[in-house]
Write a structure and sequence with these properties.
Blueprint (H helix, E strand, L loop, with lengths): L13 H13 L19 H15 L6 H7 L4 H5 L3 H9 L7 H30 L4 H18 L9 H16 L12 H6 L20 H14 L13 H15 L5
Helix pairs in contact: 1-2, 1-5, 1-6, 3-5, 6-7, 7-8, 10-11
């Protein structure tokens, strides 16, 4: 068998990563072209991943992301300092490409990140097989689960999918459930509701909470949001019928009650 690539032989287009980041730093509007497929984990260089994460945070807040503003955000960052600090951010901006081409670069980075993930999964399977402590069937099952994760994360969300891909994702969820892993399920804080939902809320679902006026729909929704936040998930709560102060008081009361403080 041909030896697996060493760490420094893994596909990693550093120049492409630099050019994509440079484009985002000089044209924040181009972020909308790549936000559906690129994540900090897409980058081979962890410093590039951190820079992308800070750009995304600023764009999400409606703030400017530029070499100057990121310099303040990343002050003292050891990885960036090793690359010459603020001067490196300026060089990234100088490597910017035309905004209309950024999608092509993003798809290239996503594809190469998937290839690295495949190599790492194969290495892990090879190590487990050589160890002899895990059965071949279980190793194959784990490898199949990893393959499904890589496939799901290496492309933009599609409006259509093959029956085979749906079955593959279902089998991956079954395999994770057998190991006691709920995957990406988010607990609602209501055990009975979690059971009916198959473990909780999952990415991609649209769940509608309906009822007549005055039936505490907002309170239930806030309880779900609170449970998700306590589980370490980011939560966005939108309301068109209640003032911010009213919502704030309810969340405050819920938080105090969770710590045994009566209000």
């Amino acid at each position: 068998m041909k030896d697996m690539p060493h760490e420094d032989e893994l596909p990693h287009p550093v120049e492409a990563e630099q050019q994509l980041l440079g484009t985002l730093l000089t044209n924040n509007e181009s972020f909308a072209r790549v936000e559906d497929i690129v994540t900090p984990g897409t980058f081979y260089d962890p410093v590039h991943g951190t820079i992308f994460e800070r750009i995304a945070a600023r764009v999400a807040d409606g703030r400017l992301a530029s070499p100057v503003t990121l310099q303040a955000d990343l002050t003292g960052h050891a990885g960036l300092e090793a690359l010459d600090g603020p001067a490196y951010l300026a060089r990234l901006a100088g490597a910017a490409i035309a905004p209309h081409a950024i999608r092509d670069y993003a798809e290239l980075l996503v594809d190469l990140a998937a290839k690295r993930a495949v190599i790492e999964a194969a290495r892990e399977a090879e190590s487990q097989a050589a160890g002899g402590e895990i059965s071949g069937a279980e190793i194959a099952e784990r490898l199949e689960v990893e393959a499904a994760k890589i496939t799901a994360g290496s492309r933009a969300k599609q409006l259509t999918a093959s029956h085979l891909s749906a079955l593959t994702e279902a089998l991956a969820e079954i395999a994770e459930a057998r190991k006691g892993d709920d995957g990406n399920a988010v607990r609602t804080g209501v055990a009975g509701l979690d059971d009916r939902l198959g473990g909780g809320l999952r990415p991609g679902q649209l769940c509608v909470l309906a009822g007549r006026p005055g039936m505490a729909k907002t309170t239930v929704a806030q309880n779900v949001a609170f449970a998700a936040a306590r589980g370490g998930k980011g939560v966005f709560f939108a309301s068109l019928e209640m003032r911010r102060a009213e919502l704030g008081l309810r969340f405050l009361a819920k938080g105090l009650a969770a710590h045994g403080i009566e209000v």
